Amino acid sequence: MEMSRRRVLGTVGAAGAAGLMIGAAGGAGISASVSDGGSASGGAVPLTAVGATEVMFHGKHQAGITTPLQARGHLVAFDLVPGAGRKEAAALLRRWSATAGALMAGKPSTDDTGIALDAGPSSLTVTFGFGRTFFDRTGLAARRPVQLDPLPAFSSDALDPKRSEGDLWVQIGADDALVAFHALRALQKDAAGAARVRWQMNGFNRSAGATARPMTARNLMGQVDGTGNPKPSDPDFDRRIFVPQGATGAQDWMAGGSYAVVRRIRMLLDDWEKLPLEKQEKVIGRRKADGAPLTGGTETTELDLDRIGPDGKTVIPDNAHSRISAPEQNGGAAMLRRPFSFHDGIGPDGTPDAGLLFVCWQADPLRGFVPVQRKLDRGDALSPFIRHEASGLFAVPGGAAQGEYVGQRLLES
After folding, report:
1. Where does the Dyp-type peroxidase C-terminal domain lie (predicted)?
2. What pTM was computed for the model?
3. In sequence order, what are the beta bridge partners of 127?
4. Of 225, 252, 290, 380, which one is the catalytic site residue?
5. Catalytic annotation on 344?
């Protein structure tokens, strides 16, 4: 009988059932985890709803894209070591997929360190992607998608190349910090001899259950962040976010996959917090208290971009962030934003090194991220209060079927 990572776990009780319902409301592929273990006295010891929630590893798409935001995250880029090529990359992805599948199910990894021994899956997700340079180093340049062409330079960029791009990219998310670190450590150990860490970034969101009801997350500026995201229930969601399943040609291996743009965005919080509330709201174009447009309604009310105020100006300013980034202002361009906040301490000048680990998903970054960012770059009222310090673009293939590893259709074609 296969033992779960949590050795002392019986059936999921009332709290676990609540976790199942919450997960089902947030996205597909989520369930309550049940162990076959028991306590030393024979009684069942249920996990809480947070610990019991499991996200499926195998599926049409990789986990961590439409999965509800998790409380803790790690973003890591790896470069293949000198001499490593396609064979070594395939072996690494096979190891990584096996480890991710076990940990996401709440089971121990090979040579498990015991860091998360007492925890359940805690909504752990592990997502794998390939950077532009990966294809040269594995002899697969002919199968590199045009969507991985380098992103254009933007005037707000102050990019550190040492913390940008990479051959391989891994996104880890969980609702428990130890579970997330456990996965990070296991994958790092798996990479030994094949790839080494290029950069790592650690992030967080509000913990599950911290609010009376599920709410859109806030960023470190205190703004509700993610209101205008496309929703899986939208009829055109898959077309905007995922590469079509019927994709053919050299990039057929990306069917069911997506493209991730990753940006470390420093927030100049001292400057932002000097603005009075009214000016902050005009910069964003939404009320800070509830995320509703300045034109009224609730968070989900459509922006009334044509409404004129008593002063003869548009109520939502022409350079407001929400106006410039709205899909209707960008030919329908849309992306699924799924970020983490970060705080890496206080700098020598006394300012916080904090902001947003921006991660957005789209079927084509040339039609999603790029046109929107170009427009923001030309006149976003938020630009004076942020700085883009690192950047990456990664092709994230579709999910692995049972018995497959992520990327197999590319590496074994």
Report:
1. 216-400
2. 0.90
3. 171
4. 225
5. no
